[in-house]
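Q: Could you fold this chain for me?
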Amino acid sequence: MAKKDESKFQPQETDYDPIPIDLENLTTSEEPAESLFDGDEQITRIATSNERLWYVVHCYSGQEKKVEHSIQQRIDSMGMRDYIFDVIVPTEEEIEVKDGKRRTVQKRVFPGYILVEMKMNEDSWFVVRNTPGVTGFVGMGNQPTPLTVAEVKAIIDRMSEGSPKIKVNYKIGQKVRIVDGPFNDFIGVVAAIDVDKSKVRVMVNFFGRDTPVELDFLEVEKAAGN
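A: Sure. Below is the predicted structure, expressed as structure tokens.
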């Protein structure tokens, strides 16, 4: 996997005390954009910041790349380069084994969410919040909450991992077909899965008796009809 350019992701040190966010259980709880305006008069309800901070933006699942592209276009067309600096869809490489073939795919780390690096003010908030496909910022009440330095680093590290993760599409007790090695084409039953070592133990009927065989994740696939 090509190493990501980490320079643009570097978190900025700040005196702002962000509220911790559980990256695995992100939620949005802000009112729609329309509720922040009264006719032509803008009601100041967004906490502004002159720091470059990363925010989590919720969007429709499956439209992350489209929303990313739309925000980038709006940054240029609305002259927001001094306030909105970067937009990313966190992804990681995953090896998928299907029909005896292996392929590397880009898996979204947080489906339905993108990250935006910006200086938060009413204008920058409005540009991002009103992008088609965006449903809101992650935060407390009406206030978008920036990611902490540690949270940004965790995402960067996850995206920069050198070895792709392997998608396990079988479970204990399921029949699998061995696709490589001396037991190629043998059918067995999954007895144990070791995710940390990327190993699976399969019980194979060999000479009339069940024999445990330890295999790499990539050496087995779900048996047809299973």
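A (continued): The chain has three helices and 16 strands.
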